[in-house]
TrEMBL record:
Species per Swiss-Prot/TrEMBL record: Natranaeroarchaeum sulfidigenes
GO molecular function: lyase activity
Domain of life where this protein originates: Archaea
VOC domain residues: 7-132, 155-278
PANTHER family to which the protein is assigned, alphabetical: RING-CLEAVING DIOXYGENASE MHQE-RELATED
Gene name of the record: gloA5
InterPro entries from the UniProt entry: Extradiol_RC_dioxygenase, Glyas_Bleomycin-R_OHBP_Dase, Glyas_Fos-R_dOase_dom, VOC_core
Name of the molecule in the record: Lactoylglutathione lyase or related enzyme
Record keywords, A-Z: Lyase
CDD domains for this protein: PcpA_C_like, PcpA_N_like
Length: 321
């Protein structure tokens, strides 16, 4: 039997300037840089991982800063928005912070009974903060170097998919163990007229919203590259891979990404999905208290360190002091 996915593992996006990306996601949003590495398919490009204090699965937003790409456009076959959880009552803090840091944000909206604050990062990536109650046993650990605990981002809330033919993707989501939990009118954030919500089994990153659209998109700065879903163990991943194949899709073989193991496939509308294991984790190759301090190269790249480092732009990780 297939173990239902607990929810989102990570979301990977395309950025432009690497220093600007670091400054915004580490300082302005207060996420921890838990891994400074390279794109393993393009090793002359950084791969930054921003997460909670411990890099808990379900909290990491990652970026490829491809400076030479053009601006992207969100459209059909893409993750159109990525939403994060924040504690109830914290959106006043975030609006004040966005004013201080000159962040482009919109008025709050209500969606499925929750309050949502939409905004964009410096590359134009659509992002949202959603107020939710954070239980005492929540698995996420807030990072408080720049943002106080009572406002700190606590992992993913949801992703929104823009799809030309939602029915086929909805079938896939059900196969992956998500259940439809509601439908409501879309509120000006997409060309579709209905938003359908699916819920996974875990406490973090458990929602996937689906909206119909045929609006054309283009990958580039400010767009999502792929969304990864948790398949905690190798056995879970292999079972899910078989389930995905049963939907007529063509997943890759397992690929070792050093901090987790991955399987990739494009679902029927073109969104790139990944299945990712929980381990070994971001602290498997450097101490927890030193995450993100140095450039980490997966083993097969270590003997190329000098050349790789010389091709990468110099960056400075923001520090509160």
């Amino acid at each position: 039997m297939t173990t239902p996915t607990p929810g989102i593992h990570h979301v990977t996006c395309v950025a432009g300037d690497p220093q600007r990306n670091l400054d915004f996601w580490a300082e302005t949003l207060g996420l921890r840089l838990v891994k400074r590495s390279i794109n393993q398919d393009d090793p002359e490009t950084y791969h930054f991982f921003f997460a909670d204090a411990e890099g808990t699965p379900g909290t990491s937003m990652t970026f490829f800063p491809w400076e030479n790409l053009s601006q992207g456009r969100v459209g059909s076959g893409q993750v159109s928005r990525t939403a994060f959880r924040v504690p109830e009552g914290s959106l006043d803090y975030w609006e004040d912070r966005f004013d201080e840091y000159d962040v482009d944000y919109d008025e709050r909206i209500e969606r499925f009974g929750e309050t949502v604050l939409p905004f964009r990062d410096p590359d134009g990536l659509p992002v949202e903060l959603v107020e939710v109650p954070i239980p005492d046993d929540d698995p996420t650990v807030p990072w408080t170097e720049f943002v106080p605990e009572n406002a700190a981002i606590r992992g993913f809330h949801s992703v929104t998919l823009w799809l030309a033919d939602p029915m086929t993707t909805e079938s896939l989501l059900r196969t992956m163990g998500l259940e439809e939990v509601g439908v409501e009118q879309a509120q000006g954030d997409a060309p579709g007229d209905e938003r359908t919500r699916f819920e996974a089994s875990g406490p973090v990153g458990k929602y996937v919203d689906v909206l119909p659209t045929i609006e054309a998109g283009r990958q580039g700065h400010g767009t999502v590259h792929h969304v990864a879903f948790q398949t905690p163990t190798d056995e879970d991943q292999m079972a899910m891979r078989k389930a995905v194949q049963s939907e007529g899709l063509r997943p890759t073989q397992q690929i070792d990404r050093h901090w987790f193991r991955s399987v990739y496939f494009r679902e029927s509308n073109g969104v790139l999905f990944e299945l990712a294991t929980s381990g070994p984790g971001y602290d498997s190759d450097e101490p927890l208290d030193a995450l993100g301090e140095r450039l980490v190269l997966p083993g097969q790249f270590e003997d190329r360190r000098e050349g790789i480092e010389s091709a990468l732009a110099d960056v400075t990780v923001p520090r509160a002091d």
